[in-house]
């Protein structure tokens, strides 16, 4: 009979073992007068695999000894980071296990490709909807509120349904392949046919009836295919980056690996920002070298969409390779299993979780805060660079500068995580956004009195506002990519799989556009109330302050919950590693056989045979 002991290191061997009989801790009397346990096959428990007591070999009496497997506790070795008894040390390269490198390198390449595509798509979508005929930056708040948000909610509902019926691999391919197909079709089919499929005459007639107040909503109808591209580009950032990539990364990495390598993922990603910014600028300048009558923007769009399709297929290839050749880490088996839930049940479950609510607060607060500044900045940007060529070229430089700043922040982020922890890292992004946002709004409010000083620098107040707004976006996004995103994704790791999958779908796909749409609604309300964004600037600054304070409070609360979950998970893993099976063997009827466990737990009990008196050693 096997006795199963739940203990931590109770049976681990001393570092300098001495020759002694393997017995329980007994008194002198019991040590000398109790029956000696026989060791199977002449072997006793040893740390080096050799018998310690060759003189204690029992006689077989014509009966072969029954072999027994003795298990040695490996909890101490695992806790110390050393290979356990009988196990070889994992091969390493540059101090990192090769198994870890097989996960980290493909993930870094995937993140590089995803961010390269996202930079191209993000810059292109702004050029399409802002510089199109009959449109302006005023379309953005309406587009985010009335088009982007409903499509994001619809995708979340569809994703929740698919997550219940498809495997993780099938779900990944089912989601990403339609994106790749659409962007390829837009560059080669939809945009060349835009002159035929856009109802410009209908939009003009409606504008004459409704008046210029409805320029933004009618622009969505006028350039509907461009708006569809805008929404798909936004969803690429929410779905492919947040749900697919980070969900996959959380699936195959441990918390220790995440703390070490998640900040470094952005190094390769922001190299992608730098190179993709140069790519956008190259195609923007390429249009100037074409002859008259040639649609240079159409040719540039085909080139950029070809790159997006190629890198999208590369992402799928890397995902397949990792799933084929990389082993998944073992998670705690004591997680509470949750049944599959429907859409409404999932939403109720997520709303009832304080942990998920705090995560949602972080995402929504970021979306509102960045949107309050970004739309105002883009309106200034179009006034300074009205042509698509100049606008796209500036956005290329902007993306390159963002990549350089974020790369620098990535180098510092690992030090911040290791020295100050998750809580401090999560609070840096809202602090940076608050300070830079106040600077941008202050320049707009006091641009008149500062005009002489600005003119002495060779700039107009408009150009200065464009540059300061660009710096605000660069610093805020660099802090987001290097600190906010890793903090947010690390917070998912201790959760069970059901909460992790459905929570990410609800937060990243819905809350992200909800934050942006919330900022857009605030701006729409301010425009209708005060007449313009410029007149509402002081009130927008006050709203920004309130939102950032709520953001900081949610980060503080989430830090406490995250720390508690991490401690619970570590305790469960320690208990699982310390679970040891010990077969108890003794002589019974002249043969080696199992005894009841109380013969070990009760050292004063005699031999089960009871026929022989105790013998002195």
From TrEMBL:
Its main location: membrane. GO terms for cellular component: chloroplast membrane. The chain crosses the membrane at residues 104-121, 141-159, 171-193, 228-249, 261-280, 301-322, 398-416, 428-446, 453-475, 539-558. Pfam families: TLC. Belongs to the ADP/ATP translocase tlc family. It comes from Pyrus ussuriensis x Pyrus communis. Residues 588-617 are annotated as: Disordered. It is a multi-pass membrane protein. NCBIfam families: AAA (TIGR00769). Keywords: ATP-binding, Chloroplast, Membrane, Nucleotide-binding, Plastid, Transmembrane, Transmembrane helix, Transport. GO terms for molecular function: ATP binding; ATP:ADP antiporter activity. This is ADP,ATP carrier protein. It is found in: Membrane; Plastid, Chloroplast membrane. InterPro entries: ADP_ATP_car_bac_type, MFS_trans_sf.
């Amino acid at each position: 009979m096997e006795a199963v002991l739940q203990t931590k290191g109770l049976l681990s061997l001393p570092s300098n073992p001495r020759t002694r009989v393997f017995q329980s801790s007994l008194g002198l009397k019991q040590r000398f007068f109790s029956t000696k346990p026989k060791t199977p096959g002449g072997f006793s428990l040893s740390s080096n695999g050799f018998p310690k007591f060759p003189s204690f070999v029992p006689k077989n009496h014509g009966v072969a000894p029954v072999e027994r497997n003795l298990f040695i506790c490996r909890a101490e070795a695992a806790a110390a980071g050393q290979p356990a008894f009988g196990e070889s040390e994992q091969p390493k390269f540059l101090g990192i296990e090769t198994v870890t490198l097989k996960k980290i390198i493909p993930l870094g390449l995937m993140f590089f490709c995803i961010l390269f595509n996202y930079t191209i798509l993000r810059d292109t979508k702004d050029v399409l909807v802002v510089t199109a005929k009959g449109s302006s930056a005023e379309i953005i708040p309406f587009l985010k509120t009335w088009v982007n948000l409903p499509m994001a909610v619809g995708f979340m509902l569809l994703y929740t349904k698919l997550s219940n019926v498809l495997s993780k691999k099938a779900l990944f391919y089912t989601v990403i392949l339609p994106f790749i197909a659409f962007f390829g079709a837009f560059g080669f089919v939809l945009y060349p046919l835009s002159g035929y499929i856009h109802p410009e005459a209908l939009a003009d007639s409606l504008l004459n009836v409704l008046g210029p107040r409805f320029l933004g909503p009618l622009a969505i109808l006028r350039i509907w295919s461009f708006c569809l591209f805008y929404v798909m580009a936004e969803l690429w950032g929410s779905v492919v980056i947040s749900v697919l990539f980070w969900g996959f990364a959380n699936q195959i990495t441990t918390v220790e690996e995440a703390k070490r390598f998640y900040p470094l993922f952005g190094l390769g990603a922001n190299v992608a920002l730098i190179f993709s910014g140069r790519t956008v600028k190259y195609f923007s300048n390429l249009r100037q070298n074409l002859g008259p009558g040639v649609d240079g923007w159409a040719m540039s769009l085909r080139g950029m969409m070809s790159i997006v399709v190629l890198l999208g297929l590369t992402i799928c290839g890397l995902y397949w390779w990792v799933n084929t050749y990389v082993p998944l880490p073992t998670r705690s088996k004591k997680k509470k299993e949750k049944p599959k839930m429907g859409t409404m049940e999932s939403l109720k479950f997520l709303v009832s979780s304080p942990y998920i609510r705090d995560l949602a607060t972080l995402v929504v607060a970021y979306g509102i805060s960045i949107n309050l500044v970004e739309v105002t900045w883009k309106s200034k940007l179009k006034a300074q660079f009205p042509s698509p060529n100049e606008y796209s070229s500036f956005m290329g430089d902007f993306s390159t500068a963002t990549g350089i700043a974020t790369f620098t922040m990535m180098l510092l982020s690992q030090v911040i995580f290791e020295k100050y922890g998750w809580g401090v890292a999560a609070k840096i992004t809202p602090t940076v956004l608050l300070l830079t946002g106040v600077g941008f709004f202050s320049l707009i409010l006091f641009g008149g009195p500062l005009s002489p000083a600005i003119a002495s620098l060779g700039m107009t107040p408009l150009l200065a506002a464009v540059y300061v707004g660009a710096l605000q976006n660069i610093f805020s996004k660099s802090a987001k990519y290097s600190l906010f995103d890793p903090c947010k994704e690390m917070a998912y790791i201790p959760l069970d799989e059901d909460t992790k999958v459905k929570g990410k779908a609800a937060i990243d796909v819905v809350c992200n556009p909800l934050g942006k749409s919330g900022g857009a609604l605030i701006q729409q309300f301010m425009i209708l109330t005060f007449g313009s964004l410029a007149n509402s600037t002081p009130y927008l600054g006050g709203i920004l302050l309130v939102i950032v304070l709520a953001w900081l409070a949610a980060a503080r609360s989430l830090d406490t919950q995250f720390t508690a979950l991490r401690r619970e998970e570590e305790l469960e893993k320690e208990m699982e590693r310390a679970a040891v099976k010990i077969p108890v063997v003794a002589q019974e009827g002249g043969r080696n056989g199992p005894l009841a466990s109380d013969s070990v737990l009760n050292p004063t009990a005699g031999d089960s045979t009871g026929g022989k008196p105790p013998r002195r050693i």
